[in-house]
Amino acid sequence: MGRSYIVEETVGQYLSDLSAKLKPYVTGVLIGQCSSQRDYVIRAVRTPPKEEQNENNINPSKLASIDEEWVTAHASQVSRMLPGGLLVLGVFIIATPELAKDSQNALRKLIFSVEKSVMKRRLWKPGEDEVSDRAALQVCSTTKKIVCRTYDVQDPKSSAKPADWKYQSAVSACWLTLDCTVNVNIHIPLLATSPNHDLEKNTKNGLNRWSKQIEDSVFLINGQVKDNDTELLEGLKKLRGSTQSSTQFSDVKVLTQLSQGSSHRSTATVQVCSGSINLKGAVKCRAYIHNNKPKVKEAVQALKRDIINTLSDRCEILFEDLIINEGLNKKNFEREYRVLPQRLFVPVAGSSVMLSDYKFRDEAAGEIQERFVEMLDQAVQAEDIHIAEEAST
């Protein structure tokens, strides 16, 4: 028996609309959440067309014209816009019957390259007991027939396994929200021996050390430390009655350990530095968890990853912006304050889940709206953009 995918009904409608409009094929990513029993798919997002791409560039007789790098770059951008608990769960292709034979090979290649690209940027590694199956969804544009298979992305030689694809309404309407604010104060020395273009590398190394602190932190959920294997909802049903749909754990506190304790020996290293980077401020973090008897460890892991991702993604966005707009030369960085982009959230229709993005202070709402249309194929009203943080350096 393969994995089961519980899929939001609106995903089926979206795929159907795409198959009616786009020929001879269209690719995209599936967004959702893994759990030990089943996976949940709450969004499907088509790969945006390249500006120079038109129907003449696509060879309708084969799928070899799929731009793997473009699909992968889009998946990486999408993964930045997902709060804790959500991930790119797989890839889909909608194709004409003539291309059906090649679809599975194309999907297999895309799944492995997407996973590699997304995980390359992450400062955490998947646990041994984590679900490593990713979905390969093939849709026939003529008959609308769906074939879902999975590949184990931890095994490069993995072969396709059949999977169940079941539509359901309001899949994520009652998911649980975990919110916390983390005060960040990270000091990253810049070695005198390291050339200036290693700023980004040094920052990543510093964030790597900090991420290990977050991994080792203690999480208080509603003021309590809970055992990893207990159910997250335990003790709350009596308090809230049947109103689970509005359950929110807004009071999550993160306690980082100040020292490693006496059992760990540490050695001091003296290094000559030419400067340092200081990251300071309060970051808003959020994770969403399915409501099918979730365990405390699932919730804590999702929130930990969001804390780590949101800071590393912002630094990455800042460096990209500096390279595009200013070039990364040394004088730009002498005693300068740079404001990392602020986090914002946008609701998903029919769901308790909100998607995330980042904005610089001089960015207008229109630019954010354009980005959501391009990256997530979602129209967003300006009044639905919720800025979660004050701007801070």
From TrEMBL:
It is found in: Membrane. GO terms for biological process: intracellular protein localization. Keywords: Membrane, Transmembrane, Transmembrane helix. GO terms for cellular component: endomembrane system; membrane. InterPro entries: ODR-4-like (IPR029454). It comes from the Eukaryota. May play a role in the trafficking of a subset of G-protein coupled receptors. PANTHER family: PROTEIN ODR-4 HOMOLOG (PTHR33966:SF1). Belongs to the ODR-4 family. This is Protein odr-4 homolog. It comes from Crypturellus undulatus.
